[in-house]
Amino acid sequence: MADLTTIEGQASYGIGFQMGQQLASNPFDGLAIDGVVKGLQDAFGGAESAVDNDTLGAAFSEIHKRMEAEKAAQFETVIAEANAFLAKNAERPEVTVTDSGLQYEVIHSGEGEKPTAQSTVRVDYHGTLLNGDVFDSSYDRGQPAEFPVGGVIKGWTEALQLMNVGDKWRLTIPHDLAYGEQGAGGAIKPYSTLVFDVELHAILG
User: Fold this and answer.
1) N or C: which end of the chain has fewer CB within 10 A?
2) Is 196 a catalytic residue?
3) Active-site residue 140, yes or no?
4) Which reaction(s) does its UniProt entry say it catalyses (predicted)?
């Protein structure tokens, strides 16, 4: 039993407690704490792993697949609603669908240059969920945003390289080109399809 009356014992316990909290925040079915402890002891003691790397890799991959399947099952309604919206939106003649599944509609056409994946751009944007709730808007803040084309979600990176300076487009971005199965913050839930009005003002470099 650890001596929790000493500074060393208290710090050691704190490390273990924090690791336990991290594990508890995203556990998988069948997680074995005694296995975790065994792995810690072996690694810290410099022992050989009791499970070879190939077997570990296969186990991690299988657990990841199970956890993703469980999460997808929890959001079946969200996924179904998004797929129905995307299918209906794609039927509109003014909407273009790219090979990746990104959908865009040209609101206003500009005549400037197109940025590359290495460019930094200045844009205004207005982002909503499918129900119309606004989660972010540079228009509302009254200040355009500047960022690297290659440093944003996949749907934005793809769309910006298709746009000319002066263009304003409406993007409908499926979850796999947005924030995926993780979501972002409290507003954007996992598997969320997002709608953005994006206006490309300038290429900064």
Assistant:
1) N
2) yes
3) no
4) [protein]-peptidylproline (omega=180) = [protein]-peptidylproline (omega=0)
Q: Convert the pLDDT of each residue in 169-186 to its tens digit.
A: 999 999 999 999 888 878
191 is an active site residue = no
Note the pLDDT of residue 72: 79
Q: Which has the minimum average pLDDT: 50-59, 83-92, 177-186?
A: 177-186
Confidence of residue 61 (pLDDT cuts 50, 70, 90): very high
153 is catalytic: yes
Options 136, 147, 176, 197, the catalytic residue: 136
Structure confidence by residue, pLDDT tens digits, 6-28: 999 999 989 999 999 998 988 88
Catalytic annotation present for 139: no
